[in-house]
Amino acid sequence: MKIIEVEDYKALTKKTSEIIIERVSQSTSLTLGLATGSTPLGVYENLREDFLNNKTSYQHVQTFNLDEYVGLHKENPNSYYYYMRENLFNHIDIPSDQIHIPNGMAEDLEIECQRYEGLIEQVGGIDLQLLGIGVNGHIGFNEPGTAFDSTTHVVKLAESTRRANSRFFHDLSEVPTHAITMGIATIMKSKQIILLVYGLKKAQILHDLMTKEINEELPASILKKHPNVTIIADAKAMSIIK
Ligand code: F6R
């Protein structure tokens, strides 16, 4: 894994969006894997601004989001569908049928997981996957203990994850208990991965990731086996490593 240390959040989002914009503008067909949460918000802001100023086109881009809550409608402001539309898709020229997010309202969630996994394969896999990391080392919603050979599946969210995400809801009881997530094996099939790590809150897990052995209790540790992972971390996230 290659680590790029940047000074602060602004530099982290600048570096990341530059990489994405370069790939989007230099390819004729591209599949992006996208994340939600706080960390990529500034990246999406830069992509919106770039589209406004430079008209970088996404007509040839397909996107696959990592995860979605179970039981939240697309129109629910806390759904990841809503988040992606508000923060990115409504502001660029990507055709709506090229946007893919697991359907957390599907009648049969198992079939939905298989459909999603199959769709990723069908388009030839993800070229560039953007990831954040949970304070417990999760990637996507793959919580500690998730099998490394897992594909897209339904997960019961860890209490720490529900608590961390409750900041977006009125209170903890509103946070869904389950989600659909790409599995670890799905993520590992991506050709290139960028892991964003930002802030003091993530300093301990970044330290653990860099120092501990690969094991299922630290889901992100599997990334050490991937041939093309770049971690972009700010100085605060790097503070324990140094
Ligand atoms: C989001 C996702 C999660 C987040 C992680 C970090 O789609 O899959 O793994 O990347 O929980 O979240 P933030 O960026 O809010 O700290």
From TrEMBL:
CDD domains: GlcN6P_deaminase. GO terms for biological process: carbohydrate metabolic process; glucosamine catabolic process; N-acetylglucosamine catabolic process; N-acetylneuraminate catabolic process. GO terms for molecular function: glucosamine-6-phosphate deaminase activity; identical protein binding. GO terms for cellular component: cytoplasm. It catalyses: alpha-D-glucosamine 6-phosphate + H2O = beta-D-fructose 6-phosphate + NH4(+). Residues 10-226 form the Glucosamine/galactosamine-6-phosphate isomerase domain. It comes from the Bacteria. Catalyzes the reversible isomerization-deamination of glucosamine 6-phosphate (GlcN6P) to form fructose 6-phosphate (Fru6P) and ammonium ion. This is Glucosamine-6-phosphate deaminase. It comes from Tepidibacillus decaturensis.
